[in-house]
Prior knowledge:
The protein is an alpha+beta fold and 240 residues long. It contains 8 helices and 11 strands.
Amino acid sequence: MSTFLPISLPSKCKPYDGIEESDITIRPYLAKDEIYLAEINPVNLESKYLQVLQSVIRGIDAKLLTLGDRLFIMIWEYINSYSHSLSLDVTCTHCLSDVTISVDLTKLQKVELPDDFKQPYMVKLPDKGKEIPLRLLTIQDELDIENYEKKNKDGHLYRYAKSIVSDTDILGRVSDLEKVSAKDLARIRAFHEKFYHGPDMDTTFKCPKCGEEDELTVPFRFEFLYPHGKALTDTFGEGI
């Protein structure tokens, strides 16, 4: 059985009531985890990856994890379960050549929540002139949004309504958001951007053809969860 290890999450556990950083431990994937990882696709990502997290994380209900912590865990698991190196096909903006580069995921910076961050966080809406309490979105929220959208409903306002801390039911919060100005909604959206936490996916690389340094935003790919195809052979094919 793989050993559970301490992990320093980018949220610093600020959004989790009664949970300290030292409470949470994690283990690398085992072969049995690939039963779920191999089945992940864009449709079932939320539910399938939650099943994996519930096995590899201790000290917190995985559904309560923020989305920033989840992305950080995805990268941590790739590094510790498979490889720190990720092969990407990119176009150099200097020489316009299509090249294959290797990104060292261990060099991605970690963006953390401020030490004084607390939930709910009061945000003043510019047009309404009132303050509303907001919180960060969690995996459970993503599951709820996914279920809402499966009913052929648009989840845009539903997503931001989930982040409003209120005794009003969720559909009531959606109805209220429909009536606010675009400027007020932008302030709510800005809250989530301001308090992004997780891996900084912006990095640089040196073009192997022209030698110039270029910028790159590492895209989310399902290879982060389960290396397969070219990503598998590029990383593990040597010696076969």
